[in-house]
Amino acid sequence: MNRLTTPFGSYELTRFPADPRDRLQAWDAADEYLLRHLDGGTGERGPVDLAGAGQITVLGDRWGTLTTALASYRPTQITDSSLTRAATEANLDRAGIGTSKATVSLLTTQDAPPERIDVLLVRVPKSLALLEDQLYRVAPHVHAGTVVVGAGMVKEIHTSTLRLFEKILGPTKTSLAEKKARLIFCTPGNPGAARPTTPGPWPLTYTVDEDGGSGAGLKVVNHAGIFCADRLDIGTRFFLQSIPTNTDGARVVDLGCGNGVVGTAVAVADPDAEIVFTDESYQAVASARATYEANVPAGRRTAEFLVGDGVSMLPPGSVDLVLCNPPFHSHQATTDATALRMFAQSRKVLRPGGELWVVANRHMGYHTHLRRLFGNSEVAASEPKFVVLRAIKREERTRPM
Fold it and tell me: Less Cβ crowding at N or C end of the chain, within 10 Å?
């Protein structure tokens, strides 16, 4: 746990789930830069009168840092990440603030934005598509007097980023860089701005080609922010050529489901299978639901769609098969922490004899982690870049007294 001192107070902040071994902070220089600017101004821009500003919306807050620091101004947070939401709640509780209508409102990217936004603070996401979609969503709710300030690390802010702000909201400038962070200043309602009158292009839809293994012919729906929006990514394509689909009515989890094409492929191949889709992203689970409904006939057994931390919400020993294409990034940081947590959670929810199937870049070396966790790991399929691994949960042996 680390303490961040800001012009608005000092706070102990963590990511979620909190792990004392995690060396990654819950904030970065972009968060600090934005908070300093709001209090004291930056360059040609003066401080923002938050007390008299009206409705403040924080879009894309990474781990609740901005929301926690500005809680006294009753902001609304909009996030695509259920982990960010959980981190925000924990950080607010730790600061003695909590969430209620009198303090902070927590919304997801699938919720309607506040009717009127007077201050819009944007943490630039890794996904340009997600930024585009969310700017389109909030655009009807800003007005000529809305203060719009974005923030990100220099490596996150590109010409394409600024063009989106300019196209959707209005004229845009950037600040000088400080500690490799930069601010974005946008002026909505400027006479020179051509505000959009139609919704953005999302979601996108495509059909899996004949080389897509068990996913061939499926219609895939991608909301903004989902990896590889307009085609099947090569890792998932390889996975779909390898996964077991004759599951004999098993309870199957598509873990980190993304657009849900893997779980949907199983559902189409085995109408008796019970499919659970789970992801930490609200956009992903909405995509998985749309993909499932676009391919599975009405009247088939209903699938479950869960947003949260892996399979932590499922009872122990309740699953027969887990299919997983784990991420190895957390925002801009490369880490295997999420994947290892997914593997440990999978072992817990699997029944004895249940199986975890994983596709990953070969260099990640997940086979050693699976052997340590499950006591076994075998290669189900491989190619030069990717490998599909299979681990089986063995029957627990009771040690003699």
Answer: C
State the average pLDDT over residues 363-376. 94
pLDDT value of position 229: 84
- pLDDT-based confidence at residue 401 (cuts at 50, 70, 90): very low
Distance CA 291, CA 264 (A): 7
Give the model's pLDDT for residue 397. 58
State mean pLDDT over 231-252: 94
Distances (CA, A) of 82 to 32, 64, 307, 308, 316: 23, 11, 7, 6, 21
How many angstroms separate the CA atoms of 385 and 303, rounded? Answer: 32
* H or E element that contains 236: helix 234-240
Annotate 92-126 with DSSP letters as a single string. Answer: HHHTT---STTS-EEEETTSPPPS--SEEEEEPPS
CA 58, CA 76: separation in Å to the nearest integer?
Answer: 6
Name the strand (E) or helix (H) holding 147: strand 147-153
pTM to 2 decimals? 0.93
What is the residue whose two structure tokens read 């499922």?
314
Whether residue 171 is preceded by a cis peptide bond, meaning omega within 30 degrees of 0, is no
Does 99 score more than 50 pLDDT?
yes
Supply the Cα-derived Rg of the chain in whole angstroms. Answer: 22
pLDDT digits (tens, 9 = 90+) for 38-72: 998 776 677 888 988 899 999 999 999 999 999 99
Q: Per-residue pLDDT averaged across 363-391, rounded?
A: 95
Residue by residue, DSSP assigns 244-309 as ----SS-EEEEET-TT-HHHHHHHHH-TT-EEEEEESBHHHHHHHHHHHHHHSPTTSPPPEEEESS
Residue with tokens 């076994």: 376
3 state DSSP class of 239 = helix
DSSP string, 38-90: HHH-BTTB-----TTS--EEEES-SSSHHHHHTGGG--EEEESBHHHHHHHHH
Beta bridge partners of 45: 42
The SS3 of residue 342 is helix
* Section 371-378 average pLDDT: 96
The beta-carbon contacts of 84-88 under 8 Å, at least 24 apart in sequence, are 84/16, 86/16, 86/17, 86/309, 87/14, 87/15, 87/16, 87/26, 87/63, 88/61, 88/63, 88/64
β-bridge partners, 361:
386
